[in-house]
Amino acid sequence: MASEDVKASESAVTTIVNLAEEAKLAREGVKAPSHAIISICKSLVAGGVAGGVSRTAVAPLERLKILLQVQNPHNIKYNGTIQGLKYIWRTEGFRGLFKGNGTNCARIVPNSAVKFFSYEQASKGILYLYQQQTGNEDAQLTPLLRLGAGACAGIIAMSATYPMDLVRGRLTVQNDKSPYQYRGMFHALSTVLRQEGPRALYKGWLPSVIGVVPYVGLNFAVYESLKDWLVKARPFGLVEDSELSVTTRLACGAAAGTIGQTVAYPLDVIRRRMQMVGWKGAGSVVTGDGRSKAPLEYNGMIDTFRKTVRHEGFGALYKGLVPNSVKVVPSIAIAFVTYEMVKDILGVEIRISD
């Protein structure tokens, strides 16, 4: 989802973070090693809990979204949110609604932990540089700078866990009648690696990197900007004693998630379709080419866009948008609120304005 300069950005962020941490610790008179280790552990725990709780809460909608994105247009089984959920319940039972959720949680917990932690650290580093450049120690992050910090966090987290996302997508799509059954996350990883090679584990990585910028970046930027505006403007009596209520935080997270997912959604459809390419014998599961029931082979991101629009129309880029919209609001909102509540419980003091 973002650029070819990921490695350089990681190195730069690491250097910046170290400088910012040293400066802050020096001002506070705290010994760096113990403070840093405790702060890092608490941040990772808060992010992991937030990711796991939010994804489990909306697992049925997440599975339906992926099924709608990749289903064969010649064999329509899922036709809308309500009908699709009923069909899964009728044909696969209660467990079918949560198929792939175990792998999703195994992926999303470290993904969310790294993402939230990376965002806070990148924000500190970027703020430090911004204050040095402007000569104003009281300067705060602008929405554009927050977007950059969010994008960096998303790229790092997504890249670290992408192979798990690929097999999670395949585990989610397969059913009892699929021609080949993956028995679990590790079996799927080893099978893809053996049958399709190491590069197959990163199919669809490019649209994922590109999508990080609008999706994760806007999520963080809009959420943090809304919070700051509410604290400063205090409209409609929503803020008391400079603190936002859980309900207000939920609304901020919902707005951030809606904007991010709407902008990036076509890239998510392309990513899922690319992930299914090479899955032998899965023609009854994945999309067809508009003329036959054979699975369609895509040769890269642009080719996937072109063939999807040509054979199924522009609307195909938004297949599954309704269940995704229904799930993304509570999912993102719950993730942000849970993260901040766990931080409060653990006593994590890592606000970027400190």
UniProtKB/TrEMBL annotation:
Keyword Membrane carried by entry: yes
Membrane topology: Multi-pass membrane protein
Main localisation: mitochondrion
Gene Ontology CC, one term: mitochondrial inner membrane
Solcar repeat extents: 38-125, 141-229, 244-345
InterPro entries attached to this UniProt entry: MCP, MCP_dom_sf, MCP_transmembrane
Keywords on record: Membrane, Mitochondrion, Mitochondrion inner membrane, Repeat, Transmembrane, Transmembrane helix, Transport
Localization terms from the record: Mitochondrion inner membrane
One GO term (biological process): transmembrane transport
Top-level taxon in the UniProt lineage: Eukaryota
PROSITE patterns in UniProt: SOLCAR
Family, as annotated: Belongs to the mitochondrial carrier (TC 2.A.29) family.
Protein name as annotated: Mitochondrial adenine nucleotide transporter ADNT1
